[in-house]
Amino acid sequence: MIESRPSLPATLDDVDGWFPKVDQRLFTWFLERQDRLGQSGDLVELGSYLGKSAILMGRHLRDGENFTVCDLFDSEAPDDSNQAEMEGSYATLTRTAFEANYRAFHDGLPQIVQAPTSAILDHVQPESCRFVHVDASHLYEHVRGDIQAAHVMLPVEGVIVCDDYRSEHTPGVSAAVWEAVAVDGLRAVCVTPQKFYGTWGDAKPVQDDLLEWLGAQDDLWHETQEVAGRRLVRVKGRPAPKPKKKNQVRELKERLARIEDQRARAQHELDSVRNSVSFKVGRAATALPRVMRRRRPPQG
Ligand SMILES: C[S@@+](CC[C@H](N)C(=O)[O-])C[C@H]1O[C@@H](n2cnc3c(N)ncnc32)[C@H](O)[C@@H]1O
């Protein structure tokens, strides 16, 4: 029997996962800014699923840096609640599928830790990273541990991104993120509808650069707010502008004119075929036997 394999993705849009466009833009901005400022360090993702965000992060890996992803993939979760999450949301996930997707965009694989995220510090050195994406379990105890591990892995100017910090179904993530802000010195740089971006360093210079960049992005909306006396930038995507009514009418008229032009040309071609000698001879040849049959006197 021939086994049918899913086709390989050609673009990030073809990869299943949870990585909105606005966050794709912001990941790129944060990672490119670090590059511009000469900040080097490793990249870590806790929770990769089929690789949507990992594939983008891997594009920013430079010589001498490591990228580590940590995910349970198709192995057992460390506790019943986590196992229920896995069966509810990621039942068909396999490591092989992640690897195939990642290889469709990159020559090599990242370092893969197929284990609970609580094992990450066995594989990544303290203060060795510049960017950590926390996107694994949604349970408070796990996320709290993941944020604490990120604090260990990042030097002071490093960037942490936490997914689902405000979703209705993930109150445990919200609790862990805001707890880190309230008691563990984490500073919010910005938030999008789905992700929280922060640092244990000085958020101000990052926010200043971000606001300057956002001012020039027509497809991104932003505002600043004070939260507990600290500046916070909110960012989200703008819906694509609808074409103006006047333009729509003009476009419709142009389409109509094109259709009328095609119809007139087809009519012209039909007329020239009908008037051609070969068409008339052909018609006469097929008409003759019919006329002869009609004229033939009845038999008997
Ligand atoms: C929301 S998905 C990640 C989405 C992905 N970053 C993307 O861009 O599409 C969460 C992932 O975390 C993994 N996960 C859940 N609990 C985990 C745990 N305790 N340790 C490691 N990985 C875990 C799941 O297997 C799943 O692949």
TrEMBL record:
Q: Which UniProt keywords apply?
A: Coiled coil
Alphabetical list of Gene3D superfamilies matching this protein: Vaccinia Virus protein VP39 (3.40.50.150)
The organism's taxonomic lineage, starting at the top: Bacteria, Bacillati, Actinomycetota, Actinomycetes, Streptosporangiales
Question: Per its record, how is this protein called by name?
Answer: Class I SAM-dependent methyltransferase
Give the originating organism. Answer: Actinomadura napierensis
Sections of the chain in a coiled coil? 242-276
The family database entries (Pfam families) matched by this protein are listed as: Methyltransf_24 (PF13578)
Q: Which InterPro entries match?
A: SAM-dependent_MTases_sf
